[in-house]
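Thread amino acids onto this structure.
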């Protein structure tokens, strides 16, 4: 996202408790209201109970033109009421919400979730993100904080009715090459390392299901299929391939993506493909096999005629197919 993508974003945290050695004593019912700015951030509200003493305060942390931190904290009268014991297996538990983010690659109207910290692990649960212009993400994850220069993580998520063009931006795909509606379901584990691509240690599966859209023929995913189809009599000369359904399961490992079955069903052409994409190379080298199915309207008509559909269309339900 652009540098100013999160400027003006509001973040709210409510911790039932925070019991970490760096704070000396437990903090209970801690409320934080944070607003990001282009020059830094402001903690507009700090409210809680620290070792039985009510606290209230604000923080201003600016990075430009020079780094500057301003803190104002006040304390009230201590309470004699005993506090509930803090669970021994966790040192923090609470919930959070994040307001609108309007970045170049990531746009959301709101996000919310729960978190819990124990030992060197932080778990994120029930994360829900309302994307712009459409789509809702549900996710759960875990990060490990035991290593100094690496952050191992696990993530599982689902997306319903997302905007394919917006999701393509998130994955750094070229702009304006695909649109439509997309559902995703994924499960990953990986390691965040400084100066290292996320894909280097990423492993997992991503189920992709898109519908009612188009893909420009210059898109890497279909460019080879488009060039190959130019020699076919039924080739569509327009600059886009329209599709009704697009389905695939992508496997991420060793800096690569592999698919056993990429399928695209459109009104004029169908595509089946299998292959690999090298994610760590600059040109994103692709190696695979592609099957093109032409005369889709005729296929559908013949498919409705008993016996004749088996004789003419065969097992792949297509009158004309080319393989590359």
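Threaded sequence (324 positions):
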């Amino acid at each position: 996202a652009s540098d100013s993508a999160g400027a003006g974003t509001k973040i709210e945290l409510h911790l039932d408790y925070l019991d970490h050695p760096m704070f000396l004593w437990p903090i209970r019912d801690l409320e934080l209201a944070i607003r990001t700015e282009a020059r830094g951030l402001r903690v507009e509200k700090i409210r809680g109970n620290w070792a039985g003493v009510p606290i209230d305060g604000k923080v201003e942390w600016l990075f430009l033109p020079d780094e500057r931190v301003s803190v104002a904290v006040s304390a009230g009268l201590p309470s004699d009421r005993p506090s509930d014991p803090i669970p021994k297996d966790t040192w923090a538990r609470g919930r959070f919400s994040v307001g609108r983010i309007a970045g170049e690659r990531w746009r959301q109207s709101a996000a919310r979730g729960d978190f819990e910290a124990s030992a060197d692990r932080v778990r994120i649960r029930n994360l829900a993100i309302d994307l712009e212009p459409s789509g809702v993400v549900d996710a759960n994850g875990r990060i490990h904080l035991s290593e100094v220069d690496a952050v191992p993580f696990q993530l599982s998520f689902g997306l319903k009715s997302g905007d394919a063009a917006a999701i393509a931006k998130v994955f750094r795909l070229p702009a304006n090459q695909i649109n439509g509606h997309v559902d995703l379901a994924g499960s990953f584990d990986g390691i965040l390392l400084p100066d290292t691509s996320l894909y280097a240690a990423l492993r997992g599966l991503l189920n992709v299901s898109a519908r009612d859209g188009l893909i420009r023929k210059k898109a890497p995913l279909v460019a080879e299929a488009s060039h190959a189809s130019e020699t076919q009599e039924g080739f569509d000369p327009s600059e886009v391939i329209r599709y009704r359904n697009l389905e695939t399961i992508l496997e991420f490992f060793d800096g690569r993506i592999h698919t056993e079955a990429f399928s695209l069903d459109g009104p004029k052409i169908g595509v089946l493909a299998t292959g690999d994409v090298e994610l760590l190379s600059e040109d994103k080298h692709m190696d695979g096999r592609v099957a093109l199915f032409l005369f889709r309207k005729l296929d559908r008509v013949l498919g409705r005629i008993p016996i004749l559909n088996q004789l003419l269309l065969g097992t792949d339900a297509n009158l004309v197919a080319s393989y590359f």
